[in-house]
Amino acid sequence: MAVQSDADIVIIGGGNAALCAAITAAEAGAKVLILEGAPKAYRGGNSRHTRNFRCMHQKPMSVLVDRYDADEYYEDLLKVTGGKTDPELAKLAINASEECQPWMEANGVRFQPSLSGTLSLARTNAFFAGGGKALVNAYYRTAQALGVEVLYEAKVTHLSLEQNRVTAVEFSYQGESHILHPKAVIAASGGFQADTDWLAEAWGPAAKNFLIRGTPYNRGVVLKDLLDQGIQSVGDPTQCHAVAIDGRAPKFDGGIVTRLDCVPFSVVVNKNAERFYDEGEDVWPKRYAIWGRLVAAQPDQIGYVIIDAKSLNLFMPSVFPPIKADSIAELAEKMGIPAEKLESTINEFNAACTDGDFHPTELDGLATQGLTPPKTNWARPITEAPFYGYSLRTGVTFTYLGLKVDKTAQVQGPQGAVENLWAAGEIMAGSILGQGYLAGFGMTIGTVFGRIAGKEAAQYANH
Amino acid sequence: MQITKTIEEARRQVEICNACRYCESFCSVFPAINRERHFSDGDITQLANLCHNCRGCYYACQYTEPHEFKVNIPKAMAEVRQESWQDYAVPAMAAKTFHKSGVLMALAVIAALAFILLLFQNAAPAAGEAQAAGFYGVLPHNAMIAVFIPAFFLPIISIAISLRRYWKSIGGERLRLAHFTNALGSVAKLKDLSGGQGEGCNFEDEDRFSNARRWSHQAIMYGFLLCFASTSVATIMHYFFNMPAPYPLFSLPKLLGITGGVILSLGTLSMASLKLRADKNLGDARVWGGEMGFVLLLFVVSTTGLALYMLGSTGAMPALLAIHLASVLAFFLLTPFSKMIHGFYRLASLLRDAQIKAKL
């Protein structure tokens, strides 16, 4: 059966950016078709794992308290990206975020005050009631009410690019290949983090041991297809955002519940039971991202976190219960690491701990003395049984490589802008987030550029 | 209660929720989860009875099947809750029987009908006289009382024993007025069916928010309470003011009863139709029949009551009266063993939740 569609605009992808584009274009009167690669149960890409949206605001707005102005927002972005950003696009996203929040509400998204354990974000981030999947559900409802057609498990394989125009969209659906010739195309199909072969090009075989925190459907097929045809790229092709997560997490889609927040209160060793980095360098929200890399650099890409009874309730519970033992040696055996070595590592650490006040929520300066590497905060001896352990692995969140776009979200080809191709979301986020991550900013980029792409594409298609 | 697979499964899921917390704003269950790190069997049962099966968390969840975590909180909670009602019931066997089967519930009504007709026969004056003398001509007031007093109080005793056991199992403490204000406030507004933002459940049309179930439930609850008030007022008028039935239209029993009856009929019809559209797999599918039977039983109680008011002076009266009394009798007797019991457990759990919150 050939797919019949007279859609003006084909949107590739079915996450936040795709849906914002679809709603905006449909409201402008365009006929829109969404080609979502995932089945309905997994629709929404990585958006289904998100939980909030970073939003500029001059005064208290909806669930957001106080104010968060554009300058502060931009400074926060510069801090995490180390300047690797496109200032024009970044400021555009920041300034537009304020008007997005009421638009999101009008299109069915419901907000809640910041979740327990995330009070630090109450001023900057608006949380979705029920999280990202609830947002995605609401947008599908709104889009379909506006007449947007949606095909699930429709995998786009190729875009024909001729003289700065996309002339055809090829995709597979229900076991057959199909081809469409829409007036305009929006690429919103995410990054390539689920393609571990591609990750291995940059990381070597180690990448095979990485876990992918989000959807298995972000394989970067459209991204690669376009880059192969000479579309300009942004972002470091070798880099991905990776954090340290529970080593028992599923290969894909483990999402938020696999995070482990106990590193600052622990001793972390590799499979040889040796410490390799300062566990107490900074508060966890500022350090969880570097631990993805640190663990990736260890043998077999695995780490082991060890805490004792007094630290068990200092961090958010994670989905898997810790491994528990009455002695360090027993814990080592249960975790499959050398017991004698672990005992000596812990003893050495304990001996290097000094007296002082312990404050779990702030840098307390309680540091080890004469230990390499040192632990510079929260260094309390691991002495109180039972002892608990977790394994740590590298969890990839997203990739940085993307399509270069201008401020109208139009994709830039070898000879300038591609006349009828726009991009939004993770597939172009590398221009703004060249490095690091700012909580909730991915959803801001997706929403702002999704809406821009939808508006521009509709204008073009209605022309 | 013995440790069951149902509780184990619910605990597994609740621990996932506690690591995620995305649903914190939906209802009372999630804040209650997030206050704890370890969940005893009693904690899980308490959470299960706090859950109103609005299903918002299911559709918002990133870990539902086909995800390997297989989270389905509405179902897990429904099953634990159901087992708590059955295990604590007195006698438990009756609960296990009637919760599961709408057919048996209907048979109970028929049995009650046979019993009432037998009473009629024994009390029966001549047909024409009966009509002239109104209801009490068909069945004298004293005979009615002799049947309904035990039919009302025996279930209450049974429920009281169950609730006491339940209260102990969830760690309930001495109650204060503030706990009641808090819990009854939630009941009055059915706050836990608001979806956290007032737009209701995700019940009859997948992830669409709708207040249809909340309103239907409110119609049933307030309709029922009005009918109950009507009967209570009439009893007081009968015994204390020597004003026996029948009452004119503009009297308290009639005004309360007719309003309540209409609201209750509409509410049960609407609830039954919503229930037909909802996904059975997001509740305890084992008791779907019994739940539907219960909703329909309430519908029969209210519509026959209304019909009796409208056709009370016609030849249909004795037959209608028999059906009405039989359905009311079955309803009372089945209260500890039917979905009706959920209201008592919910209130107990809301009270317990209010106690815990008051300590924070």
UniProtKB/TrEMBL annotation, chain A:
Record's signal peptide: none
A Pfam family it matches: FAD_binding_2
Annotated ranges, domain FAD-dependent oxidoreductase 2 FAD-binding: 8-434
Ranges in coiled-coil conformation: none
Gene: cobZ
Organism, as annotated: Leucothrix pacifica
The entry's keywords: FAD, Flavoprotein, Oxidoreductase
InterPro entries: CobZ (IPR012831), FAD-dep_OxRdtase_2_FAD-bd (IPR003953), FAD-oxidoreductase_2 (IPR050315), FAD/NAD-bd_sf (IPR036188), Succ_DH/fumarate_Rdtase_cat_sf (IPR027477)
GO MF, one example: oxidoreductase activity
Cofactors demanded by this protein: FAD
Designated name of the protein: FAD-dependent tricarballylate dehydrogenase TcuA
TrEMBL record, chain B:
Transmembrane residue ranges: 103-123, 143-167, 219-240, 252-272, 293-311, 317-337
Key words of the record: Membrane, Transmembrane, Transmembrane helix
Keyword set includes Transmembrane: yes
Xref: InterPro entries: Citrate_utilization_prot_B, NarG-like_sf
Signal peptide coordinates: none
Cross-referenced SUPFAM superfamilies: 4Fe-4S ferredoxins, Respiratory nitrate reductase 1 gamma chain
NCBIfam families according to UniProt: CitB
Protein name per the record: Tricarballylate utilization 4Fe-4S protein TcuB
Organism field: Leucothrix pacifica
